[in-house]
Amino acid sequence: MIKIYDKNGFTLIEILIVVMIIGLIASIVTPNLLKQHGEASIKLAAAQVESLSSAIQAFYLDLKRCPKDLKELISADEKQWKGPYLQKEEIPKDPWNRDYVYKCPGEHGIFDLYSLGESGKVDDNIIKSW
Q: Residue 32's pLDDT is what?
């Protein structure tokens, strides 16, 4: 007898069930991955703020003044300047691709340095040097 129809394939219902299971797993895993990415960005910004703060403090000890802007940590024409004060020859941007905010004199110390964080606004979630 000749077989015309072979039943070795998947039915539409079976395929839909597998797609639903994959969607369910993805809906559980994705928020956890996004949360970890957000936490990593905050930790990176905090480390960069700390590194830039240390460079500003070293500059301050050498020249007895704050840098006018963060670019002075890389190059300056003053005789007492002993830099560059950063390992790389560029000022890093925060993890959200924005410039760090630097103020001297600061409201919380000799200088204020902070990242606006993911929101891009001054709120309780800024990553700050004080």
A: 74
Could you read off the pLDDT of 74-99 as tens digits, one per residue?
988 888 889 899 988 889 999 999 99
In-domain check, residue 1:
no
Residue 66 lies in a domain: yes
Backbone angles phi, psi at 128, to 5 degrees: -125, 165
Pick the closest to residue 70 from 53, 46, 94, 47 (CA basis). 53
Residue 111 belongs to domain with CATH number: 3.30.700.10
- φ, ψ for residue 103, nearest 5 deg: -135, 130
Residues 84, 86, 87, 92: is their CA dihedral positive or negative? Answer: negative
Residue keyed to tokens 């830099």? 83
Structural domain including 20 reads: 12-128
For the entire predicted model, the pTM comes to 0.72
Q: Which residue has the tokens 């301050």?
A: 60
